Amino acid sequence: xxxxxxxxxxxxxxxxxxxxxxxxxxxxxxxxxxxxxxxxxxxxxxxxxxxxxxxxxxxxxxxxxxxxxxxxxxxxxxxxxxxxxxxxxxxxxxxxxxxxxxxxxxxxxxxxxxxxxxxxxxxxxxxxxxxxxxxxxxxxxxxxxxxxxxxxxxxxxxxxxxxxxxxxxxxxxxxxxxxxxxxxxxxxxxxxxxxxxxxxxxxxxxxxxxxxxxxxxxxxxxxxxxxxxxxxxxxxxxxxxxxxxxxx
Length: 248
Prior knowledge:
This protein starts with 8 loop residues before the first helix and ends in a 19-residue tail after the last helix. The longest helix is centred in the middle third of the chain and has 25 residues, at 94-118. It has a two-stranded antiparallel ribbon. It is 65% helix and 3% strand. Strand 1 and strand 2 form a beta hairpin. By secondary structure, the chain is mainly alpha-helical. The chain contains 11 helices and 2 strands; from the N terminus they run αααββαααααααα.
């Protein structure tokens, strides 16, 4: 196994173990802290803290007479960006992408409607900046992935609601894979007109139209996923490294 390196050994170990757990490496049993310390050449305090962090994400738990065990996937905290990233990196899954897009339907249209209700200030400026970057990206003058991400994240922030803000890292992580898939499958970057319709409705303070425009945008992604599901040869995007980002 690769020995974690870097300034923060605890987080490096969490990363190595998290990937291994999600990848099924410990399905037959999880090592003791002493075994982990020996394998990775780290102190017991570092291994203990990494195990605690993974337990907080729902991947591990301590059981009487059994020690530390790997929890089944339905116990994992899927809203945790690390857990979601490890799953996406393990194996590209259209089902996981579909589930995430369905979750978006419950979040982003409402966020767009709230942003339209607020309708001014720095919040709207952030969405406009994201859209300008998307236009520049379409002309080859910006990164299409990063621009698309900024647009969607800016809408969450435009709500002024801290609960919507909490979805940012999860959305960044999963949308990164989602955008790569949709762009690769359709052979182009995001639909500028559809994103422009969302922005126009928010600018005009029309919450119902903003929600409908965002709902259509996400519904199109779901349609692409359904189409790809019927084509086993559909190419999956390459998994991204640790700092993945997101959005279509």
